[in-house]
Amino acid sequence: MQLMATAVGRLGSRFSLVFDPDAKQVLHSALGRWLDFPTDLAIGIAAEDGQTFALPFTQRFSIFDVVEQQLQMCGVSFLARSLDLGIGLEVEILAPFYPRDEWLSLAPIFLIRMEVFPQERIFWQPAKRQIRQGQVFVRLQRSNLHLTQAHDRLKINYSVPKVVWKGERERPMDLGEDVELWWCDERIVPVSPNAELLEDGVAFSFDLDDPSRCKFDLVWCAFVDEPVLTVFGQPASFKYRWLFTDVDAIADFACRHYDELLRKSHQMEDLVANSGLTKSQADLIRLSFQNFLLNSWWVVREDGAEWFSVWEGSCYFHSTIDVEYNDALIYLAFWADLLELLLDEWALFEMQDEVGSYLAHDMGGELEVGKQAYHHPMPVEENANFLLMLHCLWRWTGKQEIIERHSGLAKRLTAYFERSDTTGNGFPNLGTANTIDDASPAVQYSREQTYLAVKTLCACHAASQIAETLGEEDWAEQCRKLIERIKKTLDEEAWLGDHYAVCLERTADGLVNAWTGEPLSGELIGWDAYSIYTANGLLYLLLSGNEPELNYERICIDIVNSYWRSLTEYGCTHTSADKSNVWVSQNLWRDLIASYLSVPLTDNSSRYLALQTFMNTSGLTKGFIDTYLTNNLCFYPRGITSIGYLFALCRLQIDSVRKILKLRKVAPYPCQVPLIPLADWEKGIVPKVNYSFVDGDWQLVWT
């Protein structure tokens, strides 16, 4: 694929690399994105006469004539060719990940694999010469790096200021004498024999006439030994410190288990590559998975309590509920225990206003966890998000203790819905600010929003099932009555003939801008627009086959008409009245709901991937970016919503409480779909369903 800026990261351990070919550098640090530095990383080939070519992440050497890039689930690979040398180089950088394997997934390590091969021509132009021997190398240069040769490995030491840098590329090396520093240790260790340690890297001699001297492997690892976050006032260090004593222990682990790390990383790639997804769908998952990982923090406090949270990309908020509402599909796919941990953590952030109990928007910001860092709360939305994730995790895992543990909180959050409706029509009109924070007032903080009403209905449906299971009939009845009020208003007042209104109110009088505190007045522009958010609350219930009773014919009509009225080059805007604001994650969410409801939408993944390509070329380095130009949600975790493509392809529904598993009988095309939530990762067994079209009929085979 086209060469563009891309990243690799680690689960909870922050070690990351952002490959930036336009600036000819990587962004590198053991503390990860927003705490990293521009670094000259030279990976290339040197002929015996000294002529040298490298990948486009260095300014010290000439760049290969042609460089291709392939995204992987656990990394990225580059395929480079030189006519001057008549040679090519394939480089694979892997960030090992394997579900529920903490040692493998948390260890701050990268594997670098290099293979040299002859290149006789490019198009009709023959190579100027064809060298047979030379060196392949990995070399690092940055002003604050201290590199030392030590027996079989290269030692790397440097410090990182404890300041989150807001820029996307540049970071000052020196922020002043009063800035506190982290000390970082790294190692580059050759795995292949006969390596040569250089002053700034590692080199291997290759010989194309000897196949055993054409492939080379090494390990790059990191370690930070001191606290990196403050969690409720307590220092917290990376969890990997409880698994490994120091950086050399990590290096030794990686070398001993190199083949296993390699095998499991490639197994993860095979799940996506052989899944039947389109190329653009698969690449969205690959790109966004690495951006999700590089935002994650997994630490342990001084009292031994673990803490997991995910930065909201360039916003630096810890585990924003509305963002994790979309991200949580990755936990359901690979690591459900992390979602359970997040639910327990969010329960610590119960807040109160004049209406009742609600959950904070986030858990903190930058390097401190303990209180909401965002400008204002979003009570109705975040309460609904929590309840829907809680319900889905319970139904998928069958763990009743989850809902028992959170029943009191769930009841209080549900009560907020009822008290937020002061008109009696079921639609909340208090606490209605929401996550769509670059949209028009009608979308962002109007009263009686259809989007929040439907999400509230879905959350009450989820809460009613929780209440019934726990034998709390009064709570269940409260939910059922609110559902009926919302349904009645939805059918009688919100439906405009071919779509649902954004909100019921038509005037801005009495509204307050949630950002400025300024009162609004006059016409509420866009109240009757076509919105992509109407059905947003449905997906988690669809995933377990517990969807509420609604007029689904109208829901489907609304999805189709809103799609066409708001479609742009890179996806749909929030509404037909918000013409520049595209959020990829919300488009993905809508697409998944449409798939589960059999709504005939085209596959838009090529549009979303085109935006990523645009935002990571032509001088831009944005990682996964959720937004288009008018907002800057970059290096953002929310793109991992795309993992839902694997659920939607077979329309997977799991309800472990009722012992029900459902799959669609007819796929969009013949394919094989891995049922990753059903995998036995310890044994390495992932069940699959095969859809084939034989003699004019569909056949479904479980393997």
Describe how the helices and strands are arranged.
Elements: E1 6-8, E2 16-20, E3 25-29, E4 37-47, E5 52-54, E6 62-63, E7 66-72, E8 75-82, E9 87-94, H1 102-106, E10 109-118, E11 121-122, E12 125-126, E13 133-141, E14 146-150, E15 153-161, E16 181-190, E17 195-197, E18 201-207, E19 215-224, E20 229-231, E21 234-238, H2 247-256, H3 258-273, H4 279-294, E22 296-301, E23 306-310, H5 321-327, H6 329-334, H7 336-346, E24 350-352, E25 357-359, E26 364-365, E27 368-369, H8 379-397, H9 400-405, H10 407-420, H11 441-444, H12 450-469, H13 473-494, H14 539-544, H15 552-566, E28 567-568, E29 571-572, H16 584-596, H17 605-614, H18 644-650, E30 653-655, E31 660-662, E32 671-674, E33 688-694, E34 697-702
Parallel strand pairs: 5-6, 20-27
Antiparallel strand pairs: 1-2, 2-3, 3-4, 4-5, 4-13, 7-8, 8-9, 9-10, 10-19, 11-12, 13-18, 14-15, 15-16, 16-19, 17-18, 20-21, 21-22, 22-23, 24-25, 26-27, 28-29, 30-31, 32-33, 33-34
Helix pairs in contact: 4-17, 7-8, 8-10, 8-12, 10-12, 10-13, 12-13, 16-18
